[in-house]
Design goal:
InterPro entries: IF5A-like, IF5A-like_N, IF5A_C, NA-bd_OB-fold, Rib_uL2_dom2, Translation_prot_SH3-like_sf. One of its GO terms (molecular function) is translation elongation factor activity. It holds the Pfam family eIF-5a. Belongs to the eIF-5A family. By secondary structure, the chain is mostly beta strands. It folds into 2 domains: 59 residues, SH3 type barrels (Roll); 72 residues, Nucleic acid-binding proteins (OB fold (Dihydrolipoamide Acetyltransferase, E2P)), CATH 2.40.50.140. The protein is built from 1 helix and 11 strands, in the order βββββββββαββ. The strands form 4 sheets. It has a 5-stranded antiparallel β-sheet with strand order 9-8-7-10-11, with helices on one face. A two-stranded antiparallel ribbon has the order 1-6. Strands 2-3 form a two-stranded antiparallel sheet. β2 and β3 form a beta hairpin. The protein starts with 18 loop residues before the first strand and ends with a strand. About 14% of the residues have low confidence.
Amino acid sequence: MSDEEHHFEAKADAGASKTYPQQAGTIRKNGYIVIKGRPCKVSVFCGLAFSALVVEVSTSKTGKHGHAQSSHNCDVPHVNRSDYQLIDIADDGFVSLLADNGDTKYDLRLPTDENLLTQIKDGFAEGKDLVLTVMSATGEEQICALKDIGPK
């Protein structure tokens, strides 16, 4: 045993990483990857082609003197999915959401996807009881789906 004292500085977070390493060759369609610091869903898989929002990156086979990138590690985000009941839509595009535990959330904007945006606005205007699915990764959150659970 050592008589040395060790002092550690306290950090604001618990040190949990927002990502984890994974071999590029093991990532499949509908999986997730971090590109340029942003969490992205893999929507196309041809070699290694990824797209999300506006970001699109692709790699192809290397020549005879190169090597494939599939053995390299890339960052994969920890992704969480939560459901919230829609309470209100503000004029500025922010939504008020209610969690199962009774907490309210006011910091999310309506999605930019036109189809989903129309479904949410129309359903809310018709007085439907909507549950919005929110995906979160690397500190970003986005409304990605809705369920109509009937009239209010």
